[in-house]
Design goal:
Blueprint lengths: L5 E5 L8 H9 L3 E5 L17 E5 L5 E5 L1 H11 L7 H35 L4 H4 L8 H32 L14 H15 L12 H11 L2 H7 L2
């Protein structure tokens, strides 16, 4: 690998599961672009039939192709020294990211269900736009109720996480998880916060009950490189 590598991040025209990788590449000052495949036409061309996919082209023209968002993120974080130093800190960082992904998984379940439902029934059906008590149609009632149930699972996961991690961050003088600068764990937390915020599901995150979580989010959001990616 050389510093002259170029990176092509293949993903849909949304931030979604590619956001953390976009932030890692941008903070590293890498030469990268985001490409949008023709979907589902290009699905079979992908290594595992899904996105994101990272294609790294080195100076000699050789290519390294990697799929799965977590694998891409971990590779880029290690590649560009955006992980904490020391084997124990690396293990703790991985622990934090795994715990953040409990929230990611619960959130993705909601988004995926809404997307699949909208493809079958349309985006304006009662089940997607109203509370269960407002749905007169039985099928729409069950759609709305299922969303309510999934949001409860998400909120329970978020609340438990925030209670634990606000205590962890209370011991940080800088406000970051490790040291005095952004690392992979910080970006992972910020990315899920951003995703939840876009779907109006970040109320618990924004609660004054978690001042140290809020401080970390503000630190990451105030970084000019991060802001440029978010506003792109």
């Amino acid at each position: 690998m050389t510093q002259d590598s170029k990176f092509d991040l293949l993903y849909f025209p949304i931030k979604g599961r590619a956001l953390t990788s976009q932030l890692l590449l941008s903070l590293a000052g890498a030469d990268w672009k985001n490409s949008v495949p023709e979907w589902p036409k290009d699905k079979e061309k992908m290594p595992y039939g899904r996105l994101p996919v990272l294609i790294e082209t080195e100076e000699d023209g050789s290519k390294f192709v990697l799929s799965e968002s977590r694998a891409i993120e971990e590779y880029l974080a290690a590649r560009f020294d955006l992980l904490p130093q020391g084997i124990k800190n690396l293990a703790v960082s991985s622990q934090y990211v795994n715990q953040i992904f409990d929230i990611v998984d619960a959130f993705v379940n909601i988004v995926s269900f809404k997307n699949k439902t909208s493809m079958v029934h349309g985006v304006d059906v009662d089940g997607l736009t109203k509370f269960p008590s407002e749905c007169k149609d039985r099928e729409q009632f069950f759609i709305a109720q299922h969303i309510v149930n999934m949001i409860k699972i998400l909120n329970d996961s978020v609340k438990y996480f925030l209670q634990k991690h606000d205590q962890i961050l209370a011991n940080s003088q800088s406000g970051y998880y490790f040291g005095d600068s952004i690392t992979y764990a910080d970006l992972t937390l910020y990315s899920i916060y951003f995703g939840l915020k876009c779907e109006n599901l970040a109320a618990e995150f924004d609660s004054p009950n978690y001042p140290h979580i809020n401080k970390l989010i503000q630190l990451v959001a105030s970084n000019s490189t991060v802001a440029a990616v978010i506003n792109k």
